[in-house]
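Box S2. Input/output pair 1.
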Amino acid sequence: MPVIAPMPAARPARIPNQRDGAEDATAAGTTVDHLTETYRAHYSSLLRLAALLLDDTASCEDVVQEAFIRVHSARKRVRDRDKTLAYLRQTVVNLSRSALRRRILGLKLLSKPMPDMASAEEGAYDQLERDSLIKAMKGLQRRQREVLVLRYFADMTEAQVAETLGISLGSVKAYGSRGIAALRVAMEAPA
């Protein structure tokens, strides 16, 4: 759980003297004292705002703390002191949106299962099997090879193979069974 900065000790409000005109106070931007007062007065309401946008307390506290830090570092750009709270609210909303985007992206990435990777040995063994199968297929008769390729690699039915090759259904069955038998013999033979 994140550590929340303690409430700053009460300081007397900055009282401009005669030389400080109203223009100087607004030109300097929001003062640290004004931001401290805003922190004391509105921390809880900003935390509730973040709680409405996010779902866990730790994230809400992080967002509100980050909002105060960002407005503090950009306090000279907040020319009107009355708009400090508006800037803080908008910063809390923007940071909450960013936190939700990161969370959604993380869930999308986590929901995709990692592909099962074969080990190097398995890949080499599979390659050897493929090579020996290709070599054995080259040793078959032309019709046997055509029937086996269409039937098992192109995933056609026996009727589709017969129609494609222009032969009878019985011939497809015969070439297929003889081809498989020849493959078994070729694959079991030592290389």
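Box S3. Input/output pair 2.
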Amino acid sequence: MRPSLHGSGAELVSLPVTELAPAKINLALHVTGQRPDGYHLIESIVTFADIGDHLTFSPADEDRLSLSGPFAPAITGGSDNLVARARDGLRRLLQARGVEAPAVAIHLQKNLPVASGIGGGSADAAATLRGLLRLWSAGGVGTDEIEALALSIGADVPMCMAGRPLIASGIGEKLSPLTGMPRFAMVLANPLRGISTPEVFSRLASRQNPGLVLNDPCDWMLNLAAARNDLQGPAGELVPEIGALCNLLQSQGAVLTRMSGSGATCFGVFDSRRSADHAASMLQAERPEWYFASTETIAGS
């Protein structure tokens, strides 16, 4: 790959720039209140997988957004795509500060199911911000400005920008790193039915629920077992397959199963990556019309 110079920082950039948009997994999600503007307050334990969507960024004569991958047909490359919104928002921010932000060709390989509770669109937007900051050599932009831009795109984008184990609170913008969290071998499972996050929240019986309590900093399985996802019940009313997925994961030896985010993706934690690989293979053979993928999450450091 030939190097090139871009942006006012005149830093050497190897082309093309690539970014992984890893799956975001809500190991627990407690809904603790609701603001007057309608946004829900949460406390969530978040981690990230070693699988996800892939984005590539290259200089171009005009902006382009192309799509590929198994779930590309479920989205469009128009201005409403969060990748395009992230590109355009960052360009406005940079240009207002006199930083060059020339045309770019972005290719999104969509490997994760859409509307599935694992942060696909938000992770793509976060990866776009990271990739374009590199491509446009815009390292001098303030962190606070980038974080504000990320939040304006979506409540989950700041945590996807962080890309590390953390507790997210507020509407998702208050982030506290979890340095002691271990890796987890797991299987992600989705019935390939999209689910509306607003509709899930609208079915909540209570919006004032107890917050997270981490009793033992050394026993994460104990902490997770004592936590919950307040959205799993309402989501299960809309997509009954969520319960079936958890049962299937348990049948393959998962030591903990739960829904991630607002669904419908569920995860099962296994005692090893080998066990997770075997379980994913068995479940995919049993239900070929559904999505199963083995993964390992990143550790807090």
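Caption for Box S3: The chain has two domains: 3-175, 179-296. The chain is about 30% helix and 30% strand.
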